[in-house]
């Protein structure tokens, strides 16, 4: 079912969540699917993004989020929380056991605080092996590969992205996520380059949902921007209480 949601006429808007309340609100207001934000979950635990929490902590959080709604849940597993395809596949299987229907896995890693693209051939090989191991375990899951050429603003990100998309498509990817792509021409070119559904993310100057639909985008996600907006709103409320020496602003 989740895979078919990427073939609908309207793009699938993933509501990114980080805890039970955010997941429940997503369901209450009518979103059709939810996905964890690794950055938001890490921040909530006082950590930086980039696999600075351990997988068991993530699994526990995912389990309670998934149990709180009836929505399909996809999970950001960053680089996989493992150094080998076997370890990554085992982690994915554990997530599927608690009801997860999709994962995001990225082709970049954080090394000493700096994010960098993985070698494309090595990532391609890992992806292919992970997909094979999942098949052997009779585990179905939507693999959305996050490719970070635009995020990292590499030289010729469009060319780099298209090369990686072609290789990942042959290695078992079900979808492609390109965070920070925003130009109409770039999006149109990427969509035309593959039969895989393209996922874009909330960034300033991103085209409207209607424009993205026209361009052929099939999935739209929020990243950690809603989480950051919530924190900004909380900060504003607390500042008002301190400034006004009153709780009245909470009830306006």
From TrEMBL:
CDD domains: ICL_PEPM. It holds the Pfam family PEP_mutase. SUPFAM superfamilies: Phosphoenolpyruvate/pyruvate domain. Coiled coil: none annotated. Keywords: Lyase, Metal-binding. GO terms for molecular function: lyase activity; metal ion binding. InterPro entries: ICL/PEPM, Pyrv/PenolPyrv_kinase-like_dom, Pyrv_kinase-like_dom_sf. The keyword Metal-binding applies. The keyword Lyase applies. This is Isocitrate lyase/phosphoenolpyruvate mutase family protein. It comes from Vibrio campbellii.
């Amino acid at each position: 079912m989740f895979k078919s949601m990427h073939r609908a006429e309207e793009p699938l808007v993933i509501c990114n969540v980080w805890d039970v309340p955010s997941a429940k609100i997503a369901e209450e207001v009518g979103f059709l699917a939810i996905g964890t934000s690794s950055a938001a979950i890490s921040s909530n635990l006082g950590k930086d993004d980039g696999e600075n929490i351990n997988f068991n902590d993530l699994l526990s959080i995912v389990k309670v989020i998934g149990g709180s709604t009836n929505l399909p849940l996809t999970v950001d597993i960053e680089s996989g929380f493992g150094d080998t395809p076997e370890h990554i596949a085992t982690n994915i299987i554990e997530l599927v056991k608690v009801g997860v229907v999709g994962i995001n896995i990225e082709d970049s890693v954080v090394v000493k605080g700096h994010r960098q693209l993985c070698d494309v051939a090595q990532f391609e090989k890992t992806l292919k092996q992970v997909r094979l191991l999942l098949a052997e375990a009779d585990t179905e899951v939507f693999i959305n590969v996050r490719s970070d050429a635009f995020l990292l603003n590499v030289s010729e990100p469009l060319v780099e992205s298209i090369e990686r998309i072609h290789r990942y498509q042959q290695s078992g990817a079900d979808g492609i996520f390109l965070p920070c792509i925003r130009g109409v021409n770039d999006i149109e070119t990427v969509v035309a380059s593959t039969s895989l559904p393209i996922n874009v993310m909330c960034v300033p100057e991103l085209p409207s949902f209607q424009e993205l639909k026209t361009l052929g985008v099939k999935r739209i996600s929020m990243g950690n921007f809603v989480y950051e907006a919530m924190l900004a709103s909380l900060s504003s409320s607390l500042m008002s209480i301190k400034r006004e020496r009153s709780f009245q602003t909470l009830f306006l």
